[in-house]
Amino acid sequence: MRELDRIGVALNGVRKSYGALQVVHGIDLTIRDGDFVVFVGPSGCGKSTLLRMIAGLEEVTDGEIAIKGRDVTDLDPSERGIAMVFQSYALYPHMSVRDNLAFGLKMARTDRAEIERRVGQAAEILKIAHLLDRRPGQLSGGQRQRVAIGRAIVREPDVFLFDEPLSNLDAELRVSMRVEIARLHRELGNTMIYVTHDQTEAMTLADQIVILRDGRVEQTGTPRDVYENPLNTFVAGFIGSPRMNLLDAEWRGSGKVRLADSEIEACLDSLQAGERIVVGMRPEHIRIVASGPDAVKATVEFTEYLGGTRYVYCKLGDAQNVVVELREGDDIPSGSTVWLTAPSERRRYFGATGARVG
Amino acid sequence: MRTRSEIRARKATWDRLAYHGIGIGTAFFFLAPFVVTFLSSFRPNSESGTPPLPPWPRSGISFDAYRALDGFGSGIWQHMFNSLVVSIGTVLLTVAVSVLAGYGFSRYRFPFKNVLFVLVIATLMIPFQSILTPLFIILARLGLNNSLFGLMLVYVTLQLPFSVFMMRNAFDAVPKEIEEAARIDGARDLRLLVRVLLPLVMPGIATVSIFAFLNAWNEFFAALVLLSSNDNYTLPVLMTAVRAGRLGAINWGAVQAGVAVMVVPCLIVFLLLQRYYMRGLMAGAVK
């Protein structure tokens, strides 16, 4: 019973199809109450559709959605205990900020004093009290986004839904609003579901990241989890910037992997010798060493200097590209031959299907 | 030797002069017909046959022309009332139907939506004189011939294709998210339409209203054909009766007075709604 109380949102076999085209393929997901969950994935992966189904803006073709133990699958959006912040803010342009905030409460026939109190409180939290009498057209992008968040707060929802709320803001504002949203989550403690394609937002905000591809969940876990232990090549390649180097290789058996024209050591006993595998190494884990037994020979193509760090772009003997992140050491001239290695506990191995094997 | 700032100031003065000069000139051409009509409508009977220029009454202001106008048909107030009933009714019905139809065409998905829409628009290409006979027969069957309500229905019918088109565009310009936000806020159906969407499509409604009002107010042919009793005549029909005069003599004073009376409501409607109307025509021109 206590466990049930702690469930914020539960999705059970949720599907969505438009005619014959299925875009969300049976998603099961349990979100703990109070968690900040980020849906992330490439465009067209169904993350927004999924969020809109939770909001009730999109009909569920099959499956169930429950919020705080209550089946809301067929309820009207306003009865689900949710509030949503849209990418385009979607403020009512003909109403003042105050009326924008109060509109939902007015629709619910909340009494005047209560509306006043909640609007004041939300304006306080978001520091928009001085803007209450303006129209949305007179506000800057960041202020509009605050108002949009304020409109969500006054509803005192069980679940906040954010649909790429920061993608219309410029880079600097995006960072400060990101921090603000994190602060808001700490203060309010509500369940929040956040859709983005920006993995920095995903990594920094999330308690749980849900990585989606083609309407399926590829992996769910904490940011650290999905970064360090990706379940497949898609997640490995999607999370992290620059992305993980995913290198085609061959398992030779007895602890050896053939990678380009070198051999490295690994422990993949479940595989048959001769199977194709993918070796994953993050750029920051790769070190440049003098030739060694567990290293791969590569040619340096060029280097990007970013101040605190450098990205060295290399090519292996079989023309596969490798990015190495170097924080210190001398510059390496283009065209020189180097040996690359990564600590064995940092390497990830994936089978031919893309699933993790070691 | 003049300084550069002097040259600039001089140029700015000339620019301003040219700008306002052209503006005043244009305004003069637009205002002149109104002024001429209004002034000459106050000429006494004895002057009504004199040349139109200068337009003002020379032997004192007189309301002879208006009195004469009131003598035609069932009196000017009755015909004014007829015209207002038909025009306002046309506006209300046109707006009500086109808002709902425009919303439907903009937001719902239903079979043959585009075919239907093209069909609605295509009726704009049919000259309405050509369907006047069938319309007359239909109205007669419905018992609506020689009734202002019947005439109003005809005007609404003629007005709808353009209005539906206009309203669909207006609704298309409203971002879907606003509607979704309102749905999450708990506004549904009629409340959603009235509280959230109507204010946003106000420019479209103003445009539709102006067109509906002016067309219904000025329409002559259908009114002439469909109305048979004197009491029901709308102003344009009355005006031809006035212009036709008695015994071949045209009472130009009464004609001027009639034109003045007819123009006033149009001016009022346009001035009230022009702010929205301009925005409606500009909608979507720039993002």
Automatic annotation (TrEMBL), chain A:
**What residue stretches are annotated with the ABC transporter domain?**
9-239
The listed locations are:
Cell inner membrane
Q: Name one GO molecular function term.
A: ATP hydrolysis activity
Q: Which Pfam families does its entry note?
A: ABC_tran, TOBE_2
Membrane topology category: Peripheral membrane protein
Q: Which UniProt keywords apply?
A: ATP-binding, Nucleotide-binding, Transport
Coiled-coil annotated residue ranges, if any: none
Q: Listed GO cellular component terms?
A: ATP-binding cassette (ABC) transporter complex, substrate-binding subunit-containing; maltose transport complex
Q: Which NCBIfam families match?
A: PRK11650.1
Q: To which protein family does this belong?
A: Belongs to the ABC transporter superfamily.
Its protein name is sn-glycerol-3-phosphate ABC transporter ATP-binding protein UgpC
Organism listed in the record: Rhizobium fredii
From TrEMBL, chain B:
Ranges that cross the membrane = 21-42, 80-103, 115-142, 148-171, 192-217, 249-273
**Annotated GO biological process:** transmembrane transport
Residue ranges of the ABC transmembrane type-1 domain? 80-273
Membrane topology is: Multi-pass membrane protein
The cross-references to PROSITE patterns, in alphabetical order and at most eight, read: ABC_TM1
Q: Which UniProt keywords apply?
A: Cell inner membrane, Cell membrane, Membrane, Transmembrane, Transmembrane helix, Transport
* Location in or out of the cell: Cell inner membrane; Cell membrane
Cellular compartments per GO CC: plasma membrane
InterPro entries per UniProt: MetI-like, MetI-like_sf
Question: What does this protein's UniProt record list under function?
Answer: Part of the ABC transporter complex UgpBAEC involved in sn-glycerol-3-phosphate (G3P) import. Probably responsible for the translocation of the substrate across the membrane.
Which family does the record claim for this protein? Answer: Belongs to the binding-protein-dependent transport system permease family.
Note the subunit structure: The complex is composed of two ATP-binding proteins (UgpC), two transmembrane proteins (UgpA and UgpE) and a solute-binding protein (UgpB).
What is the protein named? sn-glycerol-3-phosphate transport system permease protein UgpE
Q: Which organism is it from?
A: Rhizobium fredii
